[in-house]
Amino acid sequence: MSILAKCYNTDDLRREAKRRLPRGVFEFVDRGAEDDMCVRENLASLARIKFQPRMLVNCSVRSQVTNILGQQHVAPLAVAPMGAAGLMWHHGELEAAKAAAAVGIPYALATAAMTPMEKIAEKAGGRLWFQLYVRSDRELTYAMIDRAKAAGFEGLIVTVDMPVLPNREFNNRNGFGLPYKLTPR
After folding, report:
1. Which of 45, 57, 157, 167 is a plausible cystine mate for 131, CB 3.0–4.6 Å?
2. Which of 75, 119, 77, 79 is nearest to 99 (CA)?
3. Does residue 115 sit within a domain?
């Protein structure tokens, strides 16, 4: 039986990731900044979301089809940008993009992706968006936008949540940073 077949929820997936990944890599994706307050608040907010069941309603025809930016998709979902997904799995960004294309939802490539955007566009197919952190070097920013456009990315997600780098204390404790550098530890 595969490991994923034994994972029934996100807690199971998190537990397996923690068991398999180096501590610094796991905490990079699992934790937030400072005292993890935002992580706790996000989890609490998600826990408050409830479905409202409708009883005695004909549900023989169901559909999650929706329009996102003028195109029809099978569900109101997209794969969000995940920085350094390539550290979690070999060619992680490419595999996630392929999976998104296979189920018919958009994939957003992170600025910090380890797989070149041209390779994603060439091998993944599907609807591709590029997430951009605007750099102080505007020429570099414009060059990344031009590359994404030339590769066939149709959407640009401009991310503005980091006016300064976050204080990720656990990364300092673990000796983890980007770009990733191998150390004896």
Report:
1. 157
2. 79
3. yes
Q: How many CB atoms lie within 10 A of CB 14?
A: 14
71 residue type, one letter:
Q
Check: CB of residue 157 under 8 Å from CB of residue 131: yes
Choose between 170 and 6: higher pLDDT. Answer: 6
Residue 165 has pLDDT above 90, yes or no: no
Task: Please report the pLDDT score of residue 168 as a whole number.
Answer: 79
Residue reference for tokens 């920013």: 141
Judged by DSSP in three states, 140 sits in: helix
Instruction: Tell me the H-state helices in 59-137.
Output: 85-88, 92-103, 117-124
* Domain shared by 144 and 184, yes or no: no
Same domain, 6 and 20: yes
Contacts 24+ apart (CB under 8 A), 164-167: 166/32, 166/33, 166/34, 167/33, 167/34
Same domain, 153 and 77: yes
Number of domains in the chain: 2
* Tens digit of each residue's pLDDT (9 = 90 or more) over 33-88: 888 888 999 999 999 999 888 899 898 998 999 998 888 999 999 999 987 788 88
